[in-house]
Amino acid sequence: MSLKKNSLLIHGGIDGDETTGAVNVPVYQTSTYKQDGLGKDRGWEYSRTGNPTRAALEKLIADLEEGDYGLAFASGLAAINTVLSLFQSGDKLIVSDNIYGGTFRILDNVFNNFGITYEIVDTSDASQIEAAIDENVKAIYVESPANPLLTVTDIAQVAKIAHANDKLLIVDNTFLTPYLQRPLTLGADIVIHSGTKYLGGHSDTISGFVVVKDKALSERLYYLQNAIGGVLAPWDSFLIIRGIKTLGVRMDRHVENAEKIARWLVDSGYVSKVYYPGLETDPGYEIQKRQADGPGAMISFLLDEQYDYKKFFETLKVITLAESLGGVESLVCHPASMTHAAIPAEIRKEVGIADELIRLSVGIEDVEDLIADLEQAILDSKKAK
Ligand SMILES: *Cc1c(COP(=O)(O)O)cnc(C)c1O
Q1: DSSP-derived pairing of the beta strands 271-275 and 137-143
Q2: Is there a domain that residue 385 lies in?
Q3: Among 57, 189, 199, 314, which lies 20 to 30 A Cα-Cα from 233?
Q4: Rounded to 5, what percent of the chain is helix, strand, coil?
Q5: Residue 66 Cα, ligand 1 centroid: separation in angstroms?
Q6: Are residues 351 and 311 in the same domain?
Q7: Quick one: DSSP state of residue 192?
């Protein structure tokens, strides 16, 4: 029976435990497995290679993304590391100008050392992608909406360009999760997640995922996962399975709160700019509506110049100043010195990440409390004349 998405969150993947009937997948906290004779294992050999708790989660994320193969990693960056290991010296990637700072760092300072290069373009502009494609380019790597300016890329359009030129399309789907957007159904070849964010949802576990449909690609990725070894531990796999069960109700509330806060910010007169693809005035609004089931709950904004953004961060009482996003609690961050500090200042400036930019991960608290907190902190941060 094919299930709708809220049911899949709870019954997708490997549901329960065959052996005991336990409703939840048990935590198989073991590094190795007894073999009944030489070459006679029971399907499990060693927990870097495979673990039943992790396997249940890997099947679940594949089901949710409408893919065929899922892989779970110890972090989003361990997932990204494994995907980038598909490439070799001389290969080049086209990368969104708005990407997570750590993704930029691993490209710029790790894979670059092995001769894998990258070119940054605005992937929301198809002509820039087409202009950057040459025979060395092996893949296009996008985030949509992108971090931190929430730029929306037309995934189906970029997939067409990628495939017409025999390139892979890789999409980091962390900001929307499969509950709101399923890039494989739009033509992407590889989906990446930081499961640390909405999938886990409680700011208590670091994790990452890769999902694909193509069998040959999946075999190479499983090979790399085992060869590199950045796998997700059994207990952490259990925590992410538990988090995913409530993803739907959480995302609905996250988005409802974010839409209210974005409108409030626009109407407040306290800000000079709001970046949120759920606003009709946002350049990505139409594409986002077409390719996703909601705009997500990440908002970036610039305070009007009469307010001191540094003071604003210190005066918030409910919203916490911290790296990360996607947890039940609202978090605020300063991309230039936190999540995107790994990107050199001149590149940040080029791609429009202002030093004054504030990024808000809207949680599932009562939205009135969040708005009241934002307002008192903004008013308190007014510069002296
Ligand atoms: C956090 C994040 C990552 C990295 O994931 P970790 O789990 O922190 O390693 C990658 N991409 C995006 C969009 C992120 O927000």
Answers
A1: unpaired
A2: no
A3: 189
A4: 40, 15, 45
A5: 21
A6: yes
A7: E
Distance from residue 174's CA to the centre of ligand 1 (Å): 7
Ligand 1 atom with minimal separation from the 174 CA: 13
Catalytic residue list contains 166: no
Which atom of ligand 1 is nearest the CA belonging to 102?
4
Please tell me the residue having the least CA distance from ligand 1 atom 1: 194
Q: What is the domain-level CATH number for residue 269? A: 3.90.1150.10
Q: Ligand 1 pocket check: which of 197, 198, 343 to mutate, most ligand atoms within 8 Å of Cβ?
A: 197
Q: Are residues 260 and 369 in the same domain?
A: yes
The rounded Å distance from CA 62 to ligand 1 centre is 19
- The backbone torsions φ and ψ at residue 231, rounded to the nearest 5 degrees and listed phi first, read -85, 160
Q: In terms of residue numbers, what domain contains 288?
A: 247-380
179 classed as catalytic: no
Same domain, 63 and 162: yes
**Of all protein residues, whose CA lies closest to atom 12 belonging to ligand 1?**
100
Atom of ligand 1 nearest to the CA of 325: 15
Indicate if 213 belongs to the active site.
no
Per-residue pLDDT of the chain (385 residues; tens, 9 = 90+): 789 999 999 999 998 898 899 999 999 999 999 999 999 999 999 999 999 999 999 999 999 999 999 999 999 999 999 999 999 999 999 999 888 999 999 999 999 999 999 999 999 999 999 999 999 999 999 999 998 999 999 999 999 999 999 999 999 999 999 999 999 999 999 999 999 999 999 999 999 999 999 999 999 999 999 999 999 999 999 999 999 999 999 999 999 999 999 999 999 999 999 999 999 999 999 999 999 999 999 999 999 999 999 999 999 999 999 999 999 999 999 999 998 888 888 888 888 889 999 999 999 999 999 999 999 999 999 998 7
